[in-house]
């Protein structure tokens, strides 16, 4: 009888680890700290998301009873595809407007659960040091995904380079450009390619994580930088819909909002990444 009981306990422990959560007899989730075997596999962009998760793993996760496994991606598609397929338990690389657009276009059911930080979008150039010097008929590279394209066009509009149709905001496309006094040409590219395109264009609007990864310093090198006040583009933790209350997800969400994580973000990124309030 003892052998059977021990085997049953071992099998149950393996099952709970694979599921990434711990369930009581009634089916309700227990806090992650109650199970040292709670495992969560998280997909993330290397910078800053992977670095933030590494800080959590090295400094906070073990004490909270969380076994955190980080898988890094260099694109904005596979982390959501693999999360939807169940290969990941969560991901951390995107803002809610991007997620909403992805769910709508791909038919996925993923939910944004915890805001963590903002990476201000910026306009960068290897040829210019002042946005006012952007020449007529300049070529400006922009992200080619719908949400970040609209965000990029709004950044240009907010700084007087173009005007947009009234009320379109960050949903703007090139068709919504109503004024382009410098006759700028827009070159849509996949977001990870934008830093490498700087040598081939006059300027590029680059997402904060890719700017940092490329060695750019948003706070000092961006010609113009996105404002943080009222900004909806906070990056956060995302899971499959229905798993928002899983013990491991709840635990990681709390750790990502821990004051120690906010201090880490502030000291490491010096304004290039801003903790969510």
Automatic annotation (TrEMBL):
Instruction: Look up keyword Repeat and say if it applies.
Output: no
Could you tell me the keywords of this UniProt record?
A: Lipoprotein, Membrane, Palmitate, Signal
Q: Which CDD domains match?
A: PBP2_lipoprotein_Tp32
Domain of life assignment: Bacteria
Q: Which residues form the signal peptide?
A: 1-24
- Give the record's family classification: Belongs to the nlpA lipoprotein family.
Under what name is this protein listed?
Answer: Lipoprotein
Species in which this protein is naturally found = Nonomuraea typhae
